[in-house]
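Notes to self, Outer membrane insertion C-terminal signal:
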Amino acid sequence: MNFANSCDENGVQRFDAGLNLLGGYKLTNGFLINAGYGLGLTNIAKESFDGESVKNRVFSVGVGYQF
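result:
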């Protein structure tokens, strides 16, 4: 495997790092709810656009049921 080129053919970095936060609550009837946020820490763009960096950001929500 060749790691000399750290970008793919579209100019996106192959490596990313970030922080993830997740919180949830289980109701007394067994239903679960949660929400999360992912904060990208590394610039994933090969080239800068007007000095700006490109980072991943993710917001998630979930529901479930536990027997």
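- The chain has no helices and three strands.
- Residues 18-65 form one domain.
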